[in-house]
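Objective 1b: paired records.
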Amino acid sequence: MEKSHKRLDVWQKSFTLAKSIYEVTGVFPPEEKYGLISQMRRAAVSIPSNIAEGAARQTNKDAIHFFVVA
């Protein structure tokens, strides 16, 4: 059975964004590996992660918190 967050358009778009960020940062200079590349990738991954976490919450208040963070 598919997880509920994977059916959300916003999750699908944020997942696509994260994949794009990985592709774009793949051509950045090597000296950015632990700086800008790392920061951009972590930020991009946090969006779909927080959406998924919010979708799994039992109360609206908890879910909204994670959606706002995303």
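Objective 1b, second protein:
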Amino acid sequence: MAQTKRKRRTKHRGTAAGTIETRGRTGRPPSAEERKKQTRTEARERRLNTPPTWKRSAAIAAFASVALFLLFSVLGRGKQPVESAAIFAAFAFVLYTPGGYYMELAMYRRRQKRKQQAQVRK
């Protein structure tokens, strides 16, 4: 006699809030590509959830000011392109360090507030 009741293909688990969670893959270990994607996602979350530091802002500003120095010293056509490029790069470093820090701080606080609101809604 043929089976009349269809078997469930995937098992689900309900929570008290009424959401249904799937168990995920239980039959085989994740492939290298799946593991890489998971570690990439975890690394991104870790990076976005760390508060900004002055040291990181200074490093980013230093990189940007060196790039500006190289750009202006190569493209400079005046009598003193290297000196003026160095002055401009130093000025950019002084501006970029606090500007970058406070911009990162604002974005970090916004992400944290959004994450907290999402947890309250659940």
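The first strand starts at residue 12 and ends at 14. The helical segments are 32-48, 54-75, 81-121.
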